[in-house]
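Notes continue from the previous slide.

Worked example: a multi-chain complex. Inputs as given:
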Amino acid sequence: MTQRGKFITVEGTEGVGKTTNLEYIRNWLQHNKIEFLSTREPGGTPLAEQLRGLLLQPRDEPVDQTAELLMVFAARAQHLNQVILPALEQGIWVLCDRFTDATYAYQGGGRQMDSGIIARLETLVQGDLRPDAVILLDVPVAVGLARAKGRGVLDRFEQEDIAFFERVRGTYRERAQGNPAYHLVDAGQALPQVQAELDKVLVQLKGRWLP
Ligand code: Z5A
């Protein structure tokens, strides 16, 4: 019987360097001859990418928080059933740029929505599926925002204030505490040091999962 693939997610606040470090992780997996699929949330299927566009687009109409939360989970249901689960079932590893920890951090922490409601939607959409590993890239909010500056037009989330991003970061860090699936990487260091830490995490996971 094919062994189920492993599900790795990468998380962090604005400007932590997810894009840069996801590239490093993809190269590492390729080098180690591990078959994987790289995807992202919100998004990952044509329909879910349309929902991403709707979520990120700045608009004059205020966006109701519950509507935002349901769009996030609608995109996730589609992505999970069309892309993530079929890959995992074929033994393919899935590397996902953000997943439900981002919902706890942005909608729960940032928007201060009830985490109990998020947990109920998580169970509805995912059943008991959770990431096998969450790599949390962590930098002080001011450092991340300074790095992200100059990327052009800001999306709807990037227009939030510092207090919002402080709550997002605080929620991520709280979730990481005492959770063995979480691997917190100090992404405030220079890139070679960040990637040396990532390397240690990946070697440890490989040793555990592919002995
Ligand atoms: N969202 C949500 O609300 N609820 C959910 O459930 C989910 C998502 C799943 C889209 O996310 C938005 O969706 C997100 C939350 C919401 N909004 N925000 N904010 P996204 O992941 O697509 O967008 P993003 O957070 O803006 O990430 P990004 O565009 O991928 O950028 P990044 O990962 O933060 O950073 P980067 O582009 O790799 O790096 C930024 C710059 O820093 C760049 O110039 C790098 O060269 C530089 N960099 C990177 N690392 C270093 C180091 N170590 N030193 C110095 N400079 C560095």
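Summary box: The helical segments are 18-31, 46-56, 65-89, 100-110, 115-126, 141-148, 162-176, 191-209. The domain at 7-209 is CATH 3.40.50.300 (Rossmann fold).
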